[in-house]
Amino acid sequence: MPADDVLAAVEAFAARIHALDPKAAVLGELTLSYQGRQTQVPVTAPVKAALAEALRSYHDPRDFGSCDYCADGRLDDNFLCLSCGRPNGLFGQMLTERAEGHLEPPSLPATD
Description:
There is one protein chain. With 112 residues, the chain is α+β, with helices and mostly antiparallel strands. It is built from three helices and two strands, in the order H-E-E-H-H. Strands 1-2 form a two-stranded antiparallel ribbon. The longest helix has 15 residues, at 6-20. The radius of gyration is 25 Å and the shape is elongated.
């Protein structure tokens, strides 16, 4: 199965869960259609619960969270808000405090 075959992935997921409780009653079918292909996946109570939990608990590794300071900002991989530009969270607080108290070191004397 190719890694991007979403229909096969959902079918395999449901089959793995269903195998743990093969006598579970089918509550309905989930009909999926993608790029001209279609499949019907039988949904039992365990499959329904597992699918809902899997979707709720998924965290995209590109998502670094939301900004504490503005309403709709998302954070970049440096924890800077893409909307307001402020650093966020404990890292942002420490960065801001250090930047406020930063003193340039004295210049070194020129050597000949």
